[in-house]
Structure prediction request, 96 residues.
Amino acid sequence: MATEILLKHNESGLTKIGCYGFSWTYLCFGFFVPLIRGELGVGALHIVFAMFSFGISNIIFAFIYNKQYLRRQLESGWVFAGEESQNQFAKASISQ
Prediction:
């Protein structure tokens, strides 16, 4: 089950919810999730993986997609903005 964490962009001050853990959304909707989140390159790559694996890759990506997405957000200027204990748990969860 995915756990939510608040993210804040350093430059613009915008906030949004990030998730880490198992992605039921990805399991149900597959490559549409990165496409809807604006990651067109990642979505296209996941389409290729889904085609070559006959959809089995969706099960694998359901376990790792939220962690990868959260890492990409942190690399692009977003920071954790939740309570300190939540931030530490999220950092530990995605660093594995």
Remarks:
- The chain has a mean pLDDT of 92.
- The helical segments are 24-29, 32-36, 40-52, 56-75, 84-94.
- DSSP finds five helices and three strands in the chain.
- The beta strands are 3-9, 15-20, 78-80.
